[in-house]
Each structure stands twice: as C-alpha cells, then as structure tokens.
Amino acid sequence: MTTTNARSKPRTVVITGATAGVGRACVRAFATGGDQLVLIARGLAGLRAAAAEAEAAGSPVRTIRADVADPEACEAAVERAEAEFGPIDVWVNDAFVSVFAPFTEISAEEFRRVTEVTYLGYVNATRAVLSRMLPRDRGTIVQVGSAIAYRGIPLQTAYSGAKHALQGWHEALRCELLASGSGVRVTMVQLPAVNTPQFDWVRNRLRGRARPVPPVHQPEIAARAVRYAADHPGRREYWVGASTAATLIANAVAPGLLDRYLARNGIDAQQDEPRRAQEPDNLWAPVDEADDHGAHGRFDAEARERSAQLWASQHHGLLAAGGAVLLGAAAGVGALARRR
User: Fold this and answer.
1) Nearest 10 degrees: CA dihedral of 249, 250, 251, 255?
2) To 5 degrees, how large is the angle CA 75–CA 79–CA 84?
3) Statement: the pTM of the whole predicted model exceeds 0.85
4) CA gap 50, 137 in Å, rounded
5) What is the pLDDT of residues 121-131, one digit of tens each?
C-alpha cells in the first residue's frame, strides 16, 4: 500500500461524518499515515475527541462544524480547508442519517431529511470539491457506500433509496470523468454491517433496539478499505466483507428469492432487545454535541476484526492471475492424461 510517508509532503484529506463509526475510524487510519486532516461533522464533543486522536497520532488537523445537507456549508468547508492546508488531495464522503421504521411510518419530512444528508450530502460535497480539483486535474474522492446500494432491505426504505441513488450517481459521474480524460478519480467502497454507534442514534420506531444484520464487522476494517481506495482510486469500487460479496452476487442472480428471504428474516434480524422508552437520535441534531461516542457501537463481542474478502477485493488481479495459472495447469494435466 502506498503511504504518505513515501511522499514529499503530506496529503490534505477531508472526512465528512468524522466523529463516529466508520468516519471516526478513518480519522485514525489516515492520521497514522501522516496526512493532514480536515474533519467535518455537526457534534462539538465528537469533533474535539476525533481531532485529539489525530493529533496524538502526529497529524495536523482542523475541524469544521457543518451539515452536508446544506450546499453552501459544503462550499464554505472546502474554501476553509484549502485556506488552512492548501489543495485538497483526498475527500472522503461518509456522513449519513437514517430512520428505522416501516415505510408507512416514515413522514415525508423524515424521508426528505435522510435523502438530503445521505444522498445529497455526498452530491453537495463532491460538487464543491470538484470545482477545485478539476482545474488542477488531480484529486481523489472516496464515496463510502454499502451493500444496500445494490440491495434494499425492509425497515430501511429511506436509507436504501439514498444508497441506491448514490450508486447510480457515482457511476454516471465516473463515466463523465473518464470521458473527459480528467486526472480526478472517484471510487466507492461498499461496506457490510459495521459495529458503529449509529444503531443507537438512528430514529427508531421498531419494537426492539436497532442492530446490524450479522455478520458484523469492526469499523477499522472499513477504514482500512477506505484508505486503500484513496491510495488506489483506479478501481470503480471495492467490496468489504464476504457478506457484501454474497449479497451483491445473490441479488444479481436471484433478486426475487432474496426479496422473499429478507421478507422472512430481515425484520427480526435488524432488532434485538426491547427498545428503550426514550432514545436520542441524530436526524435533525447531533447526539455527540456534549459527549463523544467514539467509533464502536455496542456489538464488540460479535464483531469481526478481519475480512478475507477485503484482501480479495484489493488483489483481484493477483487472484485472477493465480486462477489462470491453475486453469492452465489443469488443462496441461488433462492434455497429458489424454495422450497417455
């Protein structure tokens, strides 16, 4: 993996949704590489704690309080980041919000809010930073996606819709950049279920507390994938976790069967113990304004710390070459056997 230690100067890396979960783990991943960071989020306590971790790792850091649903706030954030640290080299889009509830129990205002943050927040931020990257003909934008970008699941209609929109928009934007011959690169990282605080932050109308569908992975796995994607942005996307690969393949081959499987199993798999009477949510205001919640959620006991699929996604060329060698060897053995 290419690291910033091999560069003549550190990169300027901007991370949205930087205070918790995957975004927070990304702060640590890029800070250990010597990059200078600009962290964007809404919660003051979370921003301060994330900045302290980056500084402890030796990374220069600035924080910006902003809501990516506001395009003017995104423009201001880009302007300030470049004024503080110079041209932005890498931009990581990770901010999102969600509502766990049947579609008929999500109001129009809630659906709009999820869309404006989880989809249009990426669009707003990318538009703002592209206005600087394109004239320079360099830069990388990493979109943090999900298996849900391809496969919608029950109780997450707003989030599923936003992630599907991200996928289509990302593909179209990448085609445009390729057609123009631009040196700017965009790539997407499709994640599995991750152990983050979001399941205690989402607006929840289920009978139980929201939880990720097993198997669950630690956010550091996702962060390593995001950093690798930033260093190797030529790929259109990366898949993290065997469950992501299995879901996307199954959805491509037999989406109707997957519909029925999720109808039978997807409701209970997304909730566990009875929901508490009062649960804070970050749909309209941050939950980490006064208290930092870190990168991990409450699922450490079951969360995986490694992903063979991530390695495979990063080394698909090597695997393809190895497969070709094995096929060639098998063909040779078969031919030799036939001669005998």
Assistant:
1) 150
2) 150
3) yes
4) 31
5) 999 999 999 99
Per-residue pLDDT tens digits for 239-252: 999 999 999 999 99
For the segment 108-120, what is each residue's pLDDT rounded down to a tens digit? 999 999 999 999 9
Whole-angstrom distance, CA of residue 150 vs CA of residue 325: 32
On whether the CB atoms of residues 52 and 243 are closer than 8 A, the answer is no
CA distances (Å), 189 to each of 66, 71, 182, in order? 23, 23, 21
CA–CA gap between residue 223 and residue 196 (Å, rounded): 12
* Residue type (1 letter), 97: V
Could you tell me the sign of the dihedral formed by the alpha carbons of 111, 113, 116, 121, in that order?
negative
Long-range contacts of 53-56 (CB under 8 A, 24+ apart): 53/27, 53/28, 54/27, 54/28
Amino acid sitting at position 219: P
Please report the sign of the dihedral spanned by the C-alpha atoms of residue 155, residue 156, residue 161, residue 163: negative
Tell me the C-alpha distance between 44 and 304, whole Å. 30
Using a 10 angstrom Cβ sphere, with 0-12 exposed, 13-18 middle and 19 or more buried, the burial of residue 322 is exposed
> What is the distance between the alpha carbons of residues 220 and 223, in angstroms, rounded to a whole number?
5
Cα 91 to Cα 93: distance, rounded to the nearest angstrom: 7
* β-bridge partners, 99: 203
Please give the full DSSP string across 279-323, using - where no structure is assigned: ----SSS-S-SSS---S--S-TTT-BS--HHHHHHHTHHHHHHHH
User: H-helix or E-strand containing 185?
Assistant: strand 185-190
Question: For the chain, what is the largest distance between any 2 Cα atoms, rounded to a whole number of angstroms?
Answer: 78
> How far apart are alpha carbons 325 and 209 in whole angstroms?
49
* φ and ψ of 272, to 5 deg: -130, -110
